[in-house]
UniProtKB/TrEMBL annotation:
Residues covered by the Glycosyl hydrolase family 36 C-terminal domain: 622-698
Reactions it catalyzes: Hydrolysis of terminal, non-reducing alpha-D-galactose residues in alpha-D-galactosides, including galactose oligosaccharides, galactomannans and galactolipids
Pfam families in alphabetical order: Glyco_hydro_36C, Glyco_hydro_36N, Melibiase
A GO term, aspect molecular function: alpha-galactosidase activity
PROSITE patterns membership: ALPHA_GALACTOSIDASE
Species this chain originates from: Nonomuraea insulae
Name of the featured protein: Alpha-galactosidase
Keyword Hydrolase: yes
TM ranges: none
Family per record: Belongs to the glycosyl hydrolase.
CDD domains in the record: GH36
EC number(s) on file: 3.2.1.22
UniProt enzyme class: hydrolase
Length: 702
C-alpha cells in the first residue's frame, strides 16, 4: 500500500525510494489541529516509520513557535508569525482556527479534512503517491459555507529535515536569458521566488531544490519542490533561526482577494515534492520520468524535426516564398514545417491585427489551404503560429469588443509590444477562441500549433465582476488550459508547443496540455547551453524545442560553426530556424547529414536517461549523455579553443560495467567499467584548436 495508516492520526506515504510521514497534532488545550510532517527521506518499513511519528520540539519562546515550519499548511492565526500558506478573513476577523474532522484514504490518495472552529469553512489537504515515481503530489481545497475572503492559498508547505547547513538551487533569468542556474547557501529568513506577471515568467521558474551543501551531480541528498502552475505564483523558502526549512508554494498574486460565496470552493494546483539520494542528476532524472509518465500528454512519441520560417521571413509571409523554403527544408529531411507570425489580418508588424485570425487579405486572397497542401505534397506535416491571448488595439476584434481585454475601470490600458491581453476567464472569450482555432485546424488540416503569449498582465481586471474580478488572476490561466484541452479533444492528432516570448511559460501546469515548450528566444548555441542546462534540472529533453539558426546569430551577432549549432540543438527536440535560402550548398549538405544523424539517436535523446557531464556548459568543456536500451548518445562541447587545462578524457556514467560497448565510427569495443573509470577522448577536447568544437559520440551495447 502506498499510503499506510500508522495510527489514528499518522500516515506514511511510500514511494519506490522514499517515505513521507505526516500526522495531525491536536493541541490539548485549544483543540486546534496542526497537520505536520515528521519525516521525509529514505524509504522506511512501516515499523520504522512508526518510530518517526514524533519530532522533539525545538526551544519555544514567547516570541516564536518553531514548529510552524513543519506544518503542511501554516495558517494565519494563533501563535504563528511566519509566512502563512493560508490567509482568510471572515467579516472583520482575519484568522483561521482549524479542527480535525476526518481522514479519507483511497487508491494512493489521502485527504485530511479540517474545519474552522467558528465558521462554516472547510479545508481539505490532499496527498497522492504513485507506485512508479518518487514525486508526491499535494494540493488544497477550501469550501465556504459563508462568505469568506481568501488572500493567500498555497498548495502546501514542505519541511526539509534538519541539517547543519542548507543550500538552495533554482533558476533566474530575463527575456533571452532564461533558466540560468544558481546555487548558494540558503540564508536564515525567507527567500522568495515569484512571478507577478500573470504567466510563469522569464524571471524565475516555480521550483527549488534544497540540500545540505555537500551534494554533487551524482552523490548526496536532494529535496525538491515544484509548482504545476502557469500564472502568477510564489515559492517561499523559510529557514528558521532555530533550524529547519519549510518551502510553501502556491498560485495567486500579491494583493488581490478571492471572495468565496456560500457553497463555493477553490482548488489549488498541485505542488510536487521529490526526495532523491543520488545527487542533482538522479533528482533531475526522477523529475524527467515523472513528466513523461504523468504530465506530458504524448511523451512516448518521437518528436519530428521541425522547420520554422520566422527568422527567414519575419512578417513578410507569402505562399511562393514559403513553398520555396519548404522545398529546401524537405530536402534536408525536415518532417514538420511551421509558418510563424505574419499570416493573418493586416499583420505587417507587431502593432496590429492580434485578434483578427483570418488569412492576410492582400497576401492570401484565396486563403492558406493551397500553401499547406503544397507543404504536405513535399512529405511534411504543417503547423502554424498563433497568439490566442493577444489583442491589438488596431484590430477588428478590439473595435468590436474592447470589453474583452483585461482592464480596470477608470484606469488606462497600457500596451506592451503594442498589444493587450484577452480575458480568458470569460466564457465568451474562450468560446470565441476555441471556435476559430477549431476551424483553423480543421480547414487547414494542421498538425501543430505554436501557441505564443507575448506580454505580462497589466491592469488585470474584469469590471463587470466588481468585487469578484480578482479571480481573473487564477481563472485566466485555467481558461487557457480549458481551451487547449478542448482543442486536443476535438483533434487528437494535434500537437501544441507552448511559447511565451521565449521561456515565459515553462512549467508542469502547461505541460499537461502541450507536447513541448520553447525555452528561449535566444538561439545562440553558446547561450542556449546555459539555458538548456537550467531547463534540464527539472524538465526532460523530449519537451524542449531547440533550433539551429543562422551565423552570426540574429540576436547576439556571435559567429558559430554549423556543427556546434546542430550539436547544441540535438540535445533536445531538433528544429531549424535559419534562412535556408542563404545557406551555401556545403551548409545544406552538412545540415542534411546532421539531421540524418539526429534521427538515428533522437529516441534516446528524447526518451532516455540524461546525465550532465564535466564542466559548466557554454563556458568549459562539457557533455550531456543519454542512455536508452542498448544505445548511448554523448554530445560533447568545447567552447574554448585554447583550453589546455581541464580533463583530457570524458568519463561516462550510467553504464553496465560488465557489458561491452561498441563505438560507432571506428568499431572499437570498450567495457562499461573502462568508459566510466577512464573515459573516452573526444576530438573536441584536444587542447589546441578553434573555438566551438563539438562531437556526437554514439555507442551500442554489444
Amino acid at each position: 500500500m502506498p499510503v499506510i495508516p500508522l495510527d489514528d492520526h499518522h500516515w506514511a506515504l511510500t514511494t519506490p525510494g522514499s517515505t513521507y510521514v505526516i500526522g495531525v497534532e491536536i493541541d490539548p488545550h485549544t483543540g486546534e489541529a496542526a497537520p505536520r510532517q515528521t519525516y521525509w527521506g529514505p524509504r522506511l518499513s512501516p515499523e520504522a516509520a512508526r518510530q518517526v511519528t514524533g519530532l522533539p520540539e525545538r526551544h519555544v519562546t514567547s516570541f516564536s513557535t518553531p514548529a510552524e515550519v513543519e506544518e503542511l499548511l501554516p495558517v494565519d492565526g494563533g501563535t504563528r508569525w511566519g509566512s502563512p500558506s493560508l490567509q482568510v478573513t471572515f467579516g472583520h476577523a482575519r484568522s483561521a482556527e482549524l479542527r480535525f474532522v476526518r481522514a479519507d484514504l483511497q487508491d494512493g490518495r489521502l485527504d485530511l479534512v479540517l474545519a474552522d472552529a467558528s465558521h462554516p469553512f472547510e479545508v481539505v489537504l490532499s496527498l497522492r503517491v504513485r507506485e512508479d515515481t518518487d514525486v508526491i503530489e499535494r494540493w488544497t481545497t477550501v469550501r465556504a459555507g459563508t462568505e469568506v475572503a481568501v488572500t493567500r492559498l498555497d498548495s502546501g508547505n514542505w519541511f526539509v529535515p534538519d541539517a547543519a547547513a542548507y543550500r538552495y538551487s533554482g533558476v533566474f533569468g530575463t527575456w533571452a536569458e532564461e533558466s540560468q542556474l544558481q546555487r548558494g547557501p540558503l540564508p536564515v529568513g525567507e527567500l522568495v521566488f515569484t512571478s507577478r506577471q500573470g504567466i510563469t515568467s522569464h524571471v524565475a521558474n516555480p521550483w527549488v531544490m534544497i540540500d545540505a551543501g555537500e551534494t554533487t551531480e551524482e552523490h548526496g541528498e536532494v529535496w525538491g519542490v515544484a509548482l504545476a502552475w502557469s500564472g502568477s505564483w510564489r515559492l517561499t523558502t523559510t529557514h528558521r533561526p532555530e533550524g529547519g526549512v519549510g518551502v510553501s508554494g502556491g498560485f495567486g498574486h500579491d494583493g488581490p482577494r478571492w471572495t468565496l460565496a456560500p457553497g463555493e470552493e477553490l482548488i489549488t494546483p498541485s505542488v510536487l515534492g521529490l526526495y532523491s539520494r543520488g545527487g542533482y542528476g538522479a533528482a533531475s532524472r526522477a523529475w524527467h520520468a515523472y513528466a513523461r509518465e504523468h504530465v506530458l500528454p504524448t511523451s512516448a512519441e518521437e518528436r519530428p524535426v521541425l522547420y520554422n520560417s520566422w527568422e527567414a521571413t519575419t512578417f513578410a509571409v507569402t505562399e511562393a516564398q514559403q513553398l520555396e523554403l519548404a522545398k529546401t527544408a524537405a530536402a534536408l529531411g525536415v518532417e514538420l514545417y511551421v509558418i510563424d507570425d505574419g499570416w493573418f489580418g493586416r499583420r505587417d508588424d507587431d502593432t496590429t491585427s492580434l485578434g483578427d485570425w483570418f488569412p492576410h487579405r492582400e497576401r492570401f486572397p484565396e486563403g492558406l489551404r493551397g500553401m499547406f497542401d503544397g507543404i504536405r505534397e513535399l512529405g511534411m506535416r504543417g503547423g502554424l503560429w498563433v497568439e490566442p491571448e493577444g489583442l491589438s488595439k488596431e484590430s477588428e476584434l478590439y473595435r468590436a469588443r474592447p470589453d474583452w481585454a483585461l482592464h480596470l475601470e477608470h484606469r488606462r490600458r497600457d500596451e506592451k509590444r503594442g498589444q493587450l491581453v484577452l480575458n480568458f476567464a470569460r466564457e465568451d472569450v474562450r468560446d470565441w477562441a476555441l471556435g476559430w482555432l477549431d476551424r483553423l485546424v480543421t480547414d487547414l488540416g494542421l498538425d501543430y500549433l505554436k501557441w505564443d503569449m507575448n506580454r505580462p498582465f497589466t491592469q488585470a481586471g474584469w469590471p463587470e465582476r466588481e468585487a469578484g474580478q480578482d479571480r481573473v488572476w487564477i481563472e485566466h490561466t485555467r481558461g487557457v488550459y480549458r481551451v487547449m484541452a478542448s482543442l486536443r479533444e476535438r483533434h487528437p492528432g494535434l500537437r501544441i508547443e507552448s511559447c511565451a516570448g521565449g521561456g515565459g511559460r515553462v512549467d508542469f501546469g502547461i505541460m499537461r496540455y502541450t507536447d513541448e515548450v520553447w525555452p528561449s528566444d535566444n538561439t545562440d548555441a553558446r547561450d542556449r547551453q546555459t539555458v538548456q542546462h537550467g531547463f534540464s534540472q527539472l524538465y526532460p529533453a523530449g519537451a524542449m524545442s531547440a533550433w539551429v539558426t543562422d551565423s552570426p546569430n540574429p540576436s547576439t551577432r556571435r559567429a558559430m560553426p554549423l556543427r556546434y549549432r546542430f550539436h547544441v540543438a540535438m540535445a533536445g527536440v531538433l528544429g531549424i530556424g535559419g534562412n535556408l535560402s542563404e545557406w551555401t550548398s556545403g551548409e545544406l549538405e552538412t545540415a542534411a547529414e546532421l539531421i540524418a544523424q539526429y534521427k538515428r539517436v533522437r529516441a534516446t535523446v528524447q526518451h532516455g536517461l540524461q546525465y550532465r557531464l564535466a564542466g559548466t556548459p557554454g563556458a568549459e568543456r562539457s557533455a550531456v549523455q543519454y542512455v536508452r536500451g542498448g544505445q548511448v548518445v554523448v554530445l560533447v562541447y568545447n567552447p574554448l579553443g585554447n583550453a589546455r587545462r581541464g580533463p583530457r578524457r570524458l568519463r561516462l556514467t550510467g553504464l553496465d560495467p560488465e557489458a561491452v560497448y561498441e563505438l560507432e565510427g571506428d568499431g572499437s569495443r570498450w567495457y562499461g567499467a573502462t568508459l566510466m573509470a577512464s573515459g573516452i577522448r573526444p576530438a573536441a577536447w584536444e587542447p589546441i584548436g578553434p573555438d566551438h568544437r563539438s562531437d556526437l559520440v554514439v555507442l551500442r551495447k554489444v
